[in-house]
């Protein structure tokens, strides 16, 4: 039986194109021409001796062979990247104090700690999950080496913008259309205890739109907020990172509420020149957040149905 040896660069082009929804975008991201990526896809189909993509209208969809290959390609690339990380710091030792908000605790923290400790078992990590104000104080006081948290506009020299995340109205899964809030029956709002960036964003948007509201439930923890929303006590405002399966983002057909702003995500470092171990951990954190192949939602991601060809 002829054994197939896949080219990891080819697999990376395939996976990146699927995740970005465009092989032209994949070519741009990977620094290749579109024709080079097309040749790589042709090579893959020749190797598996079956089509991995087929036309569907103006786009492309994965064939059954393509779906199978995608799952294995992601595993191969993750193992390759993990091995590369391990070899870069084969002798790393030390202690890193890491902090992040509850939103990232379940998905990102598990992924990051698992990948890092497998590659660098001699490095000890102390993790702290807390609200952003506590994390900022801990970084400023030198009690954390690395922290991922929301952008509160606090200037800290050793910081890096990770991205902007859209704030969203969130309610129970399967929510029916919400009645229009009135002075007699204001919108029930669930939020963290003040001060809270997302609470402030929600109330400011409602006030600007002239929509009456009331705090129906305040919690010191994210789990309390999720439980209150799932119980139907009101709506909340968060990003959709870590959103449980029993909750959903409320679209305008269900919740005709005002648009919300984005919220910056920042990585803070206690030192301008962090240790090699801290630097590597920061890189793994960024990859865990920014890689489309590692979904951050707790609910099962929707199946890939369509990939635009350009």
From TrEMBL:
One of its GO terms (molecular function) is DNA binding. Residues 6-63 form the HTH lysR-type domain. It comes from the Bacteria. The lineage of its organism: Bacteria, Pseudomonadati, Pseudomonadota, Betaproteobacteria, Burkholderiales. InterPro entries: LTTR, LysR_HTH_N, LysR_subst-bd, WH-like_DNA-bd_sf, WH_DNA-bd_sf. Keywords: DNA-binding, Transcription, Transcription regulation. PANTHER family: HTH-TYPE TRANSCRIPTIONAL REGULATOR LRHA-RELATED, TRANSCRIPTIONAL REGULATOR. The keyword Transmembrane does not apply. It holds the Pfam family LysR_substrate. This is LysR family transcriptional regulator. Belongs to the LysR transcriptional regulatory family.
């Amino acid at each position: 039986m002829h054994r197939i040896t896949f080219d990891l660069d080819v697999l990376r082009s395939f996976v990146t194109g699927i995740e970005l929804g465009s092989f032209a975008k994949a070519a741009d991201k990977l620094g290749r021409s579109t024709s080079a990526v097309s040749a790589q896809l042709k090579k893959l189909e020749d190797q598996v001796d079956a089509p991995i993509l087929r036309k569907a209208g103006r786009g492309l969809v994965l064939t059954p062979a393509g779906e199978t290959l995608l799952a294995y390609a992601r595993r191969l690339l993750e193992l390759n990247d993990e091995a590369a990380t391990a070899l870069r710091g084969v002798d790393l030792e030390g202690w890193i104090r890491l902090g992040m908000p509850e939103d990232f605790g379940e998905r990102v923290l598990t992924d990051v700690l698992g990948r890092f400790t497998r590659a660098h078992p001699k490095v000890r990590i102390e993790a702290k999950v807390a609200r952003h104000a506590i994390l900022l104080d801990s970084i400023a006081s030198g009690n954390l080496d690395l922290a991922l948290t929301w952008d509160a506009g606090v200037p800290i020299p050793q910081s890096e913008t990770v991205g902007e995340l859209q704030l969203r109205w969130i309610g129970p899964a399967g929510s029916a259309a919400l009645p229009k809030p009135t002075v007699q029956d204001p919108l029930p709002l669930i939020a963290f205890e003040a001060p809270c960036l997302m609470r402030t964003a929600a109330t400011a948007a409602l006030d600007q739109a002239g929509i009456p509201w009331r705090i129906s439930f305040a919690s010191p923890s994210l789990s309390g907020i999720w439980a209150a929303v799932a119980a139907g006590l009101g709506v909340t405002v968060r990003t959709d990172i870590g959103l449980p399966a029993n909750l959903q983002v409320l679209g305008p057909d269900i919740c005709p509420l005002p648009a919300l702003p984005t919220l910056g995500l920042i990585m803070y470092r206690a030192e301008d020149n962090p240790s090699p171990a801290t630097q590597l951990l920061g890189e793994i954190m960024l990859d865990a957040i920014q890689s489309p192949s590692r979904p951050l939602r707790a609910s099962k991601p929707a199946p890939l149905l369509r990939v635009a060809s350009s």
